[in-house]
Design brief:
By secondary structure, this protein is α/β, with parallel strands linked by helices. 37% of the residues lie in helices and 16% in strands.
Length: 353
């Protein structure tokens, strides 16, 4: 009996991929989950031909951030539940790629596609500009290939299945507010000259505003989305619009002058740019604020001050550790509350410094 072509194709595919899967499993501890094989020629172009429900993506612009990205990838594979095998893409500045071969190998061992990225020369002086352009590239490359793109900062750790990332049919965008109000616009008060100019340039008017509360200092602010966790439908173009809005703001003489007088506003101009494409491009009823268990700011009080402690991971789905582990307190792992196994997992990776 002659087998159908699609059966033969499936057999050949399994046969060809088997060595990759065996090799990948050889790099894992028995408690870790299996991974998908890295995408081919991943530093140059996107070659996946599948349709995925969800893709993770992050940006790393230094070798240290690539180490962070490897912990992120490992945590997704270990604790991601139904999304543990989802594709992960890490974007790296093209001029950094040749010098980080060993880290790229580690990332690829976790099934990560490492992709070269670049930003226009005229915007390289702005903090976090590279992240904006990498996000736009990730969205462009996953449009038509993934239903959902989860854009994460590289200092993220996933500790439970992030079910809320699987957006409902009536949701196009999920977010967390900024951690605290260092440079936001207080709800119910007139915007300062910086925000008034941002709203004017990006075509945002007052009827688009709603209140959101910052988790660390509990202030009511106008929409100000945390750029470290954005869940989007790639075809909506939110992240590509982010890059366009960033160019508009960073090229405006008035904002350039205001940022020259206020370093905090200069640092977070990239984040302010998000309000345009989100508020103009997404209806309020089609966006969702993720629960506080997502993007949980671990030990935030110790770094920046906060109205409460952020030292319990029992219910945490994903956390951010920022710069904490550059100079951690000696007893941090004993002070942290939660499942002992997960605290040990964190200590083995983040506590090695």
């Amino acid at each position: 009996m002659r087998l159908p072509v699609y059966v033969l194709s499936a057999v050949v595919t399994v046969f060809l991929l088997a060595p990759l899967v065996v090799l990948a499993k050889g790099t894992l501890s028995p408690s870790d989950t299996a991974m998908t094989a890295p995408c081919p020629d991943s530093s140059k172009e996107y070659r996946h031909s599948w349709s995925e429900p969800l893709v993770y993506a992050a940006y790393a612009e230094s070798e240290e951030q690539l180490v962070h990205a490897s912990y992120l990838a490992e945590s997704i594979r270990a604790f991601g539940g139904r999304n543990a095998h989802a594709p992960i893409r890490v974007y790296v500045p093209e001029d950094l790629v040749p010098s980080v071969d060993s880290m790229i190998t580690i990332l690829e061992s976790w099934g990560v596609c490492v992709v070269a990225t670049a930003m226009p020369l005229e915007y390289r002086g702005w903090p976090f500009g590279g992240k904006v352009y990498a996000a736009a590239q990730a969205e462009r490359e996953t449009a038509g290939k993934a239903m959902i793109l989860v854009w994460l900062d590289e200092d993220t750790i996933v500790l439970q299945e992030p079910g809320a990332f699987l957006l409902g049919a009536r949701t196009d965008f999920a977010y967390r507010p900024v951690m605290h109000n260092r440079s936001g616009s207080l709800f119910g008060q007139p915007p300062d000259p910086f925000w008034a100019r941002v709203y004017e340039l990006l075509g945002v008017d007052e009827n688009m505003f709603f209140a959101m509360e910052t988790p660390a200092d509990h202030q009511q602010i106008r929409p100000y989305f945390n750029a470290g966790l954005l869940v989007v439908r790639p075809e909506r173009g939110i992240l590509r619009g982010w890059a366009e809005a960033f160019e508009t703001l960073s090229g405006d003489p008035m904002l350039v002058a205001l940022c020259g007088q206020d370093e905090v506003k200069r640092i977070f101009l990239h984040q302010a740019a998000l309000v345009g494409p989100v508020l103009r491009g997404v209806q309020r009823e089609r966006m969702v604020e993720l629960p506080g268990a997502y993007n949980y700011p671990l030990f935030f009080k110790q770094m920046y001050g906060a109205a409460e402690e952020f030292d319990s991971i029992g219910e945490v789905v994903s956390l951010r550790y920022d710069k904490y582990f550059q100079h951690p307190e000696p007893d941090w792992s004993r002070r942290l509350r939660g499942e002992p196994e997960k605290i040990t997992w964190l200590a083995k990776r983040l506590g090695k410094r």
